[in-house]
DNA sequence: AATGGACTGCACACCAGTGTGCAGTGGAGA
DNA sequence: TCTCCACTGCACACTGGTGTGCAGTCCATT
């Protein structure tokens, strides 16, 4: 069934390569143009437009990809039925490599396509807020901020640290997880125990 | 000595109004053009260019203003000689209204003028890192991240919460301070005691 | 060998923003 | 009253990005 003609495959490969490289290029400079992406993908600008009719289409596809992956991870770790803090740790651990690749979306959320991206990311935001809310209800997370804000900020910190991972000497997933746990109100000893269990 | 001709004053007023309003407009949309700023200031685009030869000049002036104010606050609270965590609380409390106004600079730091702004903000970053380092050396702050990264992230969170202050129902300075203290590794009870002392 | 289509390489038109030039206009200061 | 000058209101040139059109090339498929 999955017989794919060599033609169709190479076209899909080009498309995927454009998407992959766009994530890289936009990750370094969110204002990069279609030309920059095309060059980096070893292709001509015109070709990019053959695959994605507009810049917004490209960004949207990228976002949809991210939403799919993050949602998958999130629902999967939620299925374990563990306590909210342990679930959070598992979530970040699984999310870390993905977060680093998709860090650009946080930057893209402001400016120009912000609204479109925000809309697509809405469901993820809700799932995240639900998890934090559950943690607050079971007294493992603090209540100094409402669940939606807190989840957003904790989530943002993880991406921010993933960002600084480039220049700085790799603080890494562990430090990011601990930091997010701390701001969620998890005591330091408990936080260390949690990430120690799943390093 | 401070006799200022009515002419010179109205010119300075215009200049100040442009700066003030630019902070607002860019705060809402960092990609706003000189035209938008001009209109918001009740002035023609050409006039803005009479005061600031280029967009970069405007942004730089804005940044210099911010650096001056933040540095003043920071050195002032440092002068008290209090423990690092108490100093941090005092710093955020004094910074809060300013942070809300200058929140745009965090967005402007990425993209186009990022380098110029980053250079101007360098001294502030150092002072901040020094404070956090002192806290780590005296065991009031945790060491899960190096001082420079940790200060940067904690600082960023305060601005992020100041940002969400618009849409959301005013979490306010107190919540922001507690959140930043938590991620600095200050235990929740201590954090609450600290902000309680200076609400 | 012929065909179809992915990709190239160039051509455009279009737009939005930046920065400049210059002849006004109106009000403060001499 | 006359001069100066901040501000206006147009003009313009320039840049850099977006999106489209189209002839041509190359190669897998038929």
From TrEMBL, chains A, B:
<protein>
    <submittedName>
        <fullName>TetR/AcrR family transcriptional regulator</fullName>
    </submittedName>
</protein>
<dbReference type="InterPro" id="IPR050109">
    <property type="entry name" value="HTH-type_TetR-like_transc_reg"/>
</dbReference>
<keyword id="KW-0238">DNA-binding</keyword>
<keyword id="KW-0804">Transcription</keyword>
<dbReference type="InterPro" id="IPR001647">
    <property type="entry name" value="HTH_TetR"/>
</dbReference>
<dbReference type="Pfam" id="PF00440">
    <property type="entry name" value="TetR_N"/>
</dbReference>
<keyword id="KW-0805">Transcription regulation</keyword>
<dbReference type="InterPro" id="IPR009057">
    <property type="entry name" value="Homeodomain-like_sf"/>
</dbReference>
<feature type="DNA-binding region" description="H-T-H motif">
    <location>
        <begin position="33"/>
        <end position="52"/>
    </location>
</feature>
<feature type="domain" description="HTH tetR-type">
    <location>
        <begin position="12"/>
        <end position="70"/>
    </location>
</feature>
């Amino acid at each position: 069934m999955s017989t794919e003609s060599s033609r169709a495959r190479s076209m899909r490969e080009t498309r995927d390569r454009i998407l992959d490289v766009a994530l890289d290029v936009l990750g370094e400079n969110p204002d990069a143009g279609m030309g920059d992406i095309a060059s980096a993908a070893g292709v001509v600008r015109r070709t990019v437009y053959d695959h994605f009719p507009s810049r917004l289409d490209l960004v949207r596809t990228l976002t949809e990809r991210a939403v799919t992956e993050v949602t998958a991870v999130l629902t999967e770790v939620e299925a374990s039925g563990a306590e909210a803090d342990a679930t959070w740790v598992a979530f970040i651990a699984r999310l870390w490599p993905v977060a680093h690749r998709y860090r650009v979306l946080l930057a893209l959320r402001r400016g120009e396509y912000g609204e479109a991206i925000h809309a697509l990311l809405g469901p993820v935001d809700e799932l995240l807020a639900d998890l934090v809310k559950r943690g607050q209800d079971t007294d493992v997370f603090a209540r100094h901020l409402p669940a939606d804000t807190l989840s957003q900020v904790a989530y943002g910190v993880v991406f921010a640290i993933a960002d600084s991972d480039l220049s700085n000497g790799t603080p890494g997933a562990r430090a990011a997880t601990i930091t997010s746990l701390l701001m969620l109100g998890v005591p330091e000893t408990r936080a260390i125990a949690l990430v120690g269990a799943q390093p």
